């Protein structure tokens, strides 16, 4: 009996120390944050941690889930004069002209993601030179500007990658859609690219998409007049 009690003591002590450690990381100073960053961040996954500087609250460390639920609507974090905000109505008008074609494509290909949404996503890939669909999908998980432009609500889960990848491929296999994207770039962004230093337009990717549906050099001739 005595041996059993003694054996239990270290385990109880470990649990108490662990509880004290979690409690202690509810509030930390800058020096403690620097010394125990990994532990503080791990504690913040369970409960927000307040970081103090010079004895007063400075910042909070919170988990991704807690941060998303604490935020307002995505649109409230986007500057009203951002070029994508200004361009979006014109983009929507152009896409609306092809609503019947896009609806038919979605039905024929059994697409899970609306083509209009994916067109906006592909415009983001072009404008910001996102190198792959994997990275594009990742950006949609945490980039508020990307989420807003794609029409995702703040707490709305991003589509699983296999469906995302399949529907993008179906969209780009349609020549009408690719030429629609080219038209949007030409009409909406051609005069704005030089005034948008944060944008790095990937013309090569657009050439590649067009090249699947045009003769040699035809897609390039159509784009070279932009801006």
Could you tell me the mean pLDDT?
Answer: 81
Q: What's the end-to-end separation, in Å?
A: 85 Å
Main β-sheet, in a few words? 3 strands, mixed
Strand order, biggest sheet?
Answer: 1-2-3
Order of helices and strands: HEHHEEHHHHHHHHHH
Shape: elongated
The helix-and-strand class reads: mainly alpha
Low-pLDDT stretches: 1-23, 219-227
Description:
The chain has 227 residues and is mainly α. The chain folds into two domains: 2-68, YefM-like fold (3-Layer(aba) Sandwich); 74-223, no CATH class. Helix content is 63%, strand content 6%. It contains 13 helices and three strands; from the N terminus they run H-E-H-H-E-E-H-H-H-H-H-H-H-H-H-H. It has helices spanning 2-24, 30-35, 37-46, 64-70, 83-96, 99-108, 115-127, 133-142, 144-150, 161-172, 175-189, 203-211, 218-223; strands at 27-29, 49-53, 56-61. It has a three-stranded mixed sheet with strand order 1-2-3. A hairpin with a 2-residue loop joins strand 2 (49-53) and strand 3. Helix 5 packs across helix 11 and helix 8 (133-142) crosses helix 9 (144-150). The longest helix is centred in the first third of the chain and has 23 residues, at 2-24. The chain is elongated, with a radius of gyration of 25 Å. The termini are far apart. The model is unreliable at 1-23 and 219-227 (pLDDT under 50).
């Amino acid at each position: 009996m005595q041996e059993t009690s003694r054996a239990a003591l270290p385990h109880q002590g470990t649990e108490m120390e662990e509880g004290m450690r979690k409690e202690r990381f509810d509030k930390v100073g800058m020096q403690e944050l620097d010394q125990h960053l990994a532990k503080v961040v791990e504690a913040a996954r369970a409960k927000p941690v307040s970081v103090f500087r010079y004895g007063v609250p400075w910042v909070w460390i919170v988990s991704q889930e807690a941060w998303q639920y604490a935020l307002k609507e995505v649109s409230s974090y986007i500057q009203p004069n951002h070029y994508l905000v200004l361009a979006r109505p014109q983009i929507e008008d152009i896409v609306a002209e092809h609503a019947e074609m896009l609806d038919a494509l979605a039905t024929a290909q059994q697409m899970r993601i609306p083509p209009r949404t994916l067109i906006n996503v592909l415009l983001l890939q072009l404008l910001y030179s996102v190198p792959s669909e994997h990275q594009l999908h990742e950006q949609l998980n945490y980039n508020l500007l990307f989420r807003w432009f794609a029409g995702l609500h703040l707490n709305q889960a991003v589509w699983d990658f296999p469906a995302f990848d399949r529907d993008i491929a179906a969209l780009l296999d349609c020549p009408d859609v690719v030429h629609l994207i080219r038209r949007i770039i030409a009409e909406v962004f051609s005069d704005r690219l030089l005034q948008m230093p944060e944008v790095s337009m990937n013309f090569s990717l657009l050439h590649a998409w067009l090249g699947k549906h045009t003769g040699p050099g035809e897609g390039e001739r159509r784009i070279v007049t932009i801006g």
